[in-house]
Amino acid sequence: MTRRKRLQNAERFFVMAHDFQNLGFYVDAAHYYKKSIRMYPTPEAYTHLAWAHSFLGEYDQAIEFCKVAISLDPDYGNPYNDIGAYMLEKGQIDAAIPYLRRAAKARRYDQPHFAHYNLGRAWERKHQMDKALGEYKRSWEISPDYEPARMAYFRLVRLTN
Q1: CA dist 146 to 6, 137, 149, 152, Å?
Q2: Rounded to an integer, what distance in angstroms lies between the CA atom of residue 139 and that of residue 71?
Q3: What does the buried/exposed string (b/e) look like for 134-160 if buried means 16 or more CB atoms within 10 Å of the residue's CB?
Q4: Taking every pair of C-alpha atoms in the chain, what is the biggest distance, in angstroms?
C-alpha cells in the first residue's frame, strides 16, 4: 500500500473514531484510533486514543498512550496536558505539575488555556491559592470564553477574601 493510501486510510479511521467518541462509544472509538495508528501513527491519534481510554477510567493506559504521542512529537502540547489532567484525577498532584507546565509552554498547542486551568486546579489542591489564582486568571485571559477558568477564578477570589 502506498504512503498516500495509508495516510488516507489513517485519516478515515481517525474521523470514524472521533465520531464514535463524540457519541460516547469509547470502546469503538479506541478500536478505530488503533486502526488509524496501524495505518499511520501520529501523536494526534495516540492522544485521542488516550482520551478514549480516560473516559473508560483507564488512566494508566491513557498516560502510556500520551507518552507515545510525546515520543512522536515532543512539541505537541495536548498529551502533556492530558497526562497532567489524568494524574490530577489519580490524585498525583506533584507528578502532574511538570507535565502541565510543559503543556503551557509547548510550541504546538493551540489551547494552552487548558494547561493553565489544570495548573490552577493543581495549585489549589496544594493550597497554594496565589499560584492557583494566577493560573486561573492566565487561562481566562488566553481564552475569555472559557467559563471554567472564569468561574474558578471568581470562586477562589471569594474564598480568599
Answers
A1: 37, 11, 6, 11
A2: 27
A3: bbbbbbbebbeebebbbebbeebeeee
A4: 64
pLDDT single digits (tens) 15-69: 999 999 999 999 999 999 999 999 999 999 999 999 999 999 999 999 999 999 9
> What is the dotted CATH code of the domain comprising 1-109?
1.25.40.10
CA 21/CA 25 separation, integer angstroms:
5
62-117 pLDDT per residue, tens: 999 999 999 999 999 999 999 999 999 999 999 999 999 999 999 999 899 999 99
CB 106 within 8 A of CB 80: yes
CB within 8 Å of 23: residues ≥ 6 apart: none
**Cell numbers of 122, please?**
493543581
Is this model's pTM higher than 0.85 or not?
A: yes
- For the chain, the domains span 1-109, 111-161
Q: Which residue do the cell numbers 510525546 mark? A: 70
